[in-house]
Amino acid sequence: MDKQTIILLDNGSRRAEATLSLRKLARSLEDTVGETIYPVSLQHANHIDPGLVEGRPALTFEAFLRDQLQSGRRKFLVVPLFFGQSRALTSFIPDIIGCLQKEFGPFGLTLADVLCPLPDGDQRLARILCDNIETTMRAHGIPRSRVILVDHGSPTREVAAVRELLASQMRQILDPGISLHEAVMERRPGSEYDFTGRLLEEVLDELATSEDDTPVVLSMLFLAPGRHAGSGGDITSIRDRVVAANPSLQAVITPLVGEHSGLVDILKERLEQAL
After folding, report:
1. Cβ neighbours of residue 146 under 8 Å, at least 6 residues apart?
2. Based on the structure, what is the number of domains in the chain?
C-alpha cells in the first residue's frame, strides 16, 4: 500500500531563518510522531541560497509534489503551519492540486486542520501566547504591563477572527491587571477592511502618549522569523520608530509562537486527526 507522504507546510519566506525554523519544527514533530516529515513552503523559499540553509535547497510545494508524483507517490497529508483558513489554503493550494492532477491524473491529498480552527479555536495557543508574555516580562523585570496582540493583518475575515478569538481567550488567562489590545502589522485601505484591525503603529503610539507609563509587551502572533517577525523585521522597525518618538516608552517583543515547545503538541494532534 502506498504510504502517505507527510508535509509540514508554511507560507514561505525569502529569509533563510524562516526555512531553518520550519526544518527545526519538522524535526521535532518527526521525533514526536515517529514518521518522516517533509518541511515544505508554499512559495518564496526557492529563492534562498542553499548555502544559507544547511547546504540543501528549500522545498516549495508545487515543485515538491511534482517530484513526488514523478517518483510514483500518490498519497499526501499536509499539516498546515497556518493559524487560520487563509486564501493560501482555500484557493492557492486547490489551484496547484488542480493543475497537477491535469498533468498526473488523480492523486490523494488530505489537508489537516489549521492551528486555530473556528469557532472554538484551541486554548493551547492562547496559553502559548500568554506563556511567551510572562517569559518576556520576567526577562525584562517588568512586574506589570500592557499587551498588544499583533498579527500580520489579513484581508480574510476568517483569519482576522482567529486573532479576535485568541485575544478573548488570553484575557481569561492573563492577570486581570493586564490590559490587552489588538493590532495588525499592515492592512488594506478602505472601510471595507476595518474588520482587519488597527495598525500596530497607531495603537502603540496611542499607548505611548497616554498618561499610563506602564511598559508595553508586543505579543507576537507569528510562527517564524522572516521579513515581518524576528530580529530586524518589520515589527521591530515599527516598535523602534514609536520608541524613538516617545523615549520614555518601554516596549518589548515576545518570542514567536513557533519557538514554543507546546506548538508541537498541537501539530501532532492535527496530524493524527487527519490520518
Report:
1. 178, 179, 181, 207, 212, 214, 215, 216, 217
2. 2
Match 495598525 to its residue by C-alpha cell.
199
Check whether residue 104 and residue 39 sit in a common domain.
yes
Where residue 95 sits, what CATH number does that domain have?
3.40.50.1400
Tens of pLDDT, residue by residue over 46-91, are 999 999 999 999 999 999 999 999 999 999 999 999 999 999 999 9
Percent helix, percent strand, percent coil in the chain, to nearest 5: 45, 15, 35
Q: Which three cell numbers stand for residue 262?
A: 507546546
Q: Is the pTM above the cut of 0.90?
A: yes
Residues 205, 238: Cα–Cα separation, whole Å: 10
Q: Report which of 105, 116, 40 is spatially closest to residue 78, judged by C-alpha positions.
A: 40
Question: SS3 for 131?
Answer: helix
* pLDDT < 70 stretches in the chain: 1-2
Q: In which domain, by residue range, is 229 found?
A: 123-259
Helix (H) or strand (E) holding 25: helix 16-33
For the chain, what is the total number of helices (H) and then of strands (E)? 9, 9
